[in-house]
């Protein structure tokens, strides 16, 4: 992998989070992400998705399904990032907490 490809891979969480924040602020019609910010259940809709995705991660791991584990993990991380944006937290807040742990 080239250095540019490595940099793109490393920046993907920042780019995804920036898109999530943009969808939160702009609320474009037809956007799944925007719909999470305006859902009639409020943040509970996102919390339910986190629970669902966590269960799917567990099941994929239990079944030793690597492809499904990666896909479901991506879904879980995405919904977690949406929750952070809902709570006015950032990827940098998450990074700082992880850094403080080791």
Automatic annotation (TrEMBL):
Q: Which GO terms describe its cellular component?
A: cytoplasm
Q: Which NCBIfam families match?
A: histidine_hisI
Highest taxon of the lineage: Archaea
Question: Which subcellular locations apply to this protein?
Answer: Cytoplasm
Q: In which pathway does it act?
A: Amino-acid biosynthesis; L-histidine biosynthesis; L-histidine from 5-phospho-alpha-D-ribose 1-diphosphate: step 2/9
List the Pfam families hit by this protein, alphabetically.
Answer: PRA-PH
Chain segments annotated as transmembrane: none
For this UniProt record, the keywords arranged alphabetically read as follows: Amino-acid biosynthesis, ATP-binding, Cytoplasm, Histidine biosynthesis, Hydrolase, Nucleotide-binding
- Under which EC number(s) is this enzyme classified? 3.6.1.31
| Name of the featured protein | Phosphoribosyl-ATP pyrophosphatase
GO MF terms here are: ATP binding; phosphoribosyl-ATP diphosphatase activity
Gene3D superfamilies tied to this protein:
MazG-like
Keyword match Transmembrane helix: no
Sorted alphabetically, the Gene Ontology BP terms of this entry are: L-histidine biosynthetic process
Kindly state which reaction or reactions the protein catalyses: 1-(5-phospho-beta-D-ribosyl)-ATP + H2O = 1-(5-phospho-beta-D-ribosyl)-5'-AMP + diphosphate + H(+)
Q: Which family does it belong to?
A: Belongs to the PRA-PH family.
Question: The organism's lineage?
Answer: Archaea, Methanobacteriati, Methanobacteriota, Stenosarchaea group, Halobacteria
